[in-house]
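Folding Query — how this chain folds
Tokens — whole-number codes for backbone shape
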Amino acid sequence: MKTEKKFQEMRVAGIASDTRNMQPVVILREVSGDRELYIWIGPVEAMALQRAMSKEVFQRPLTHELLRNLLEKLDAQLEHIEIDDLKDHTYYATIYLKTSDSKLITLDARPSDSLVLATWTGASIFVSERVIQGMTETHIGEEPRKKVVFSQEDVEKTDEELTKILERIKPEDLGNA
């Protein structure tokens, strides 16, 4: 029996860097709450997200701008994205597009690409409650695994204190984008 998924609207609050390996981390914050979700992404995706957040446009469109332009030319709209699953430390996302004839199309996508596109278009970002809580899909009888989620207080600590927190986390607790 499939359980109904509950989603929370979140927004991109910023991009940080994991001080241990200098890998970019997207910080998602609940729109109507104070929980945050951290998703480790690649440097190229981080640059694309930073450009989308600042609305920095180059002379020639890069991949995410090309996708945004393609949607506009096809008269399609990015309705919203959902970060809807976490399996084997990998996040999964779905893009919801609406065509000019009101047909809804869903596309499997990486969360990092989905977040960049949503940021460029102003589309809403929804995250499954299970993902926010760090739950992974489990087989019947298995204990669900929790992913570490930092509180706002943790985030506001100094770099040295944050480094100590990150050193306590096992790599398998972090997940992939």
The chain is about 30% helix and 30% strand. The radius of gyration is 17 Å. The longest helix spans residues 43-54. The first strand starts at residue 7 and ends at 17.
